[in-house]
Amino acid sequence: MQFTAHELGLLLNGTVEGDPLVPVNQLAKIEEAKAGSLSFLANPKYEQYLYTTEASVVIVNNDQVLASPSKATLIRVENAYSAFTLLLEKYNTLKLNKTGTEQPSFVHPSAQIGKNVYVGAFAYIGPNVKVGNNSKIYPHTYIADDVIIGNNVTLFPGVKVYFDCKIGDNVIIHSGAIIGSDGFGFAPAANGTYTKISQIGNVIIEDNVEIGSNTTVDRATLGSTIIRKGAKLDNLIQVAHNVEIGANTVIAGQAGISGSTKIGDNCVIGGQVGIVGHLSIAKGSQLMAKSGINKNITEENKKWGGVPFFTGYMENLRNEAAASHLPALEKKVTELEKIITELRKGH
């Protein structure tokens, strides 16, 4: 879509300096922008590009002082970063504004589909499914029997939602994510084989959750695997059966959470963190990337690190820094041993 600097100025409650009718049809970084692009300047480190950019329009702060003329039309606002963030959100909304049912796709006659819902080609919506208003089901998405999906939910291409799972309002699930696959439950037999334990629970995802691509959330053996409201999960995360993730907790990519572990609200879990099963992680905990968590964390709002974790975050950093000096320390110890040996010979 195309907008003029004047239209953008009205939207952002800003002041236009330059040609108010100059059109823009794309967003770009200030150092890479071409004619027809809209960009912004919020970090002083990038000010040099304000005078060389080919962008047609640049959003700047009200207090931005020009060291030399800029070819671009400027829109002055109170906060350039916030203004550009608003435009990104508007642009994304327009880009993803899809409605209607594409063919071929399958919607079971018993499914209840809300208003202004988009169903992409080759999507499958099974018996007794409920999809709320303004939700978007992208192509090649699979929604099994008795799934409940709230309002304003977006399931990107290739998402799979197994039977009986429940998804709240304003949830975003990215391509390739799997919700409700079987938990890793097997009983060892006397002959060395394993017998599968049926996983008959479900997954409950509360409101305002976002789940990244290729993340898997296993269904509970009994009861529910639960992701509380506002939680944000990165790509490539494993959430095992009967796990509970607290509200507004964020988890970075490649983390793995074993079965029946309970994670409190407002936790921050770094990339590649591994958490063993049946643990409790106190609310506000911050777990350093690659940490191995093998026991309960009961103290709230603390930072932890280590493999396996055993110290606070800062102490772990000091330990790692000290470890880098071990070769030099070993050399010094060897030299001191030689000196002590010579001194003993002298006596």
Shape: flat
Distance between the termini: 91 Å
Strand content: 25-35%
Helix and strand content put the structural class at alpha/beta
Q: What is the architecture of the largest domain at the second tier of CATH?
A: 3 Solenoid
What is the CATH homology-level superfamily of the largest domain? Hexapeptide repeat proteins
**Spatial sequence of strands, sheet with the most strands:** 8-11-14-17-20-25-28-31-34-37-39-40
Detail the topology: elements first, then pairings.
Elements: E1 3-4, H1 5-12, E2 15-17, E3 23-24, E4 26-27, E5 37-40, E6 57-61, E7 73-77, H2 80-95, E8 100-101, E9 106-107, E10 112-113, E11 118-119, E12 124-125, E13 130-131, E14 136-137, E15 142-143, E16 148-149, E17 154-155, E18 160-161, E19 166-167, E20 172-173, E21 178-181, E22 186-188, E23 194-196, E24 202-205, E25 210-211, E26 216-218, E27 224-227, E28 232-233, E29 238-239, E30 244-245, E31 250-251, E32 256-257, E33 262-263, E34 268-269, E35 274-275, E36 280-281, E37 286-287, E38 292-293, E39 303-306, E40 309-312, H3 313-323, H4 326-346
Describe this structure in words.
By secondary structure, the chain is α/β, with parallel strands linked by helices. The protein folds into two domains: 3-95, 3-Layer(aba) Sandwich (Udp-n-acetylmuramoylalanyl-d-glutamate--2,6- Diaminopimelate Ligase, Chain: A, domain 1), CATH 3.40.1390; 100-319, UDP N-Acetylglucosamine Acyltransferase, domain 1. The protein contains four helices and 40 strands. The longest helix has 21 residues, at 326-346. It is flat.
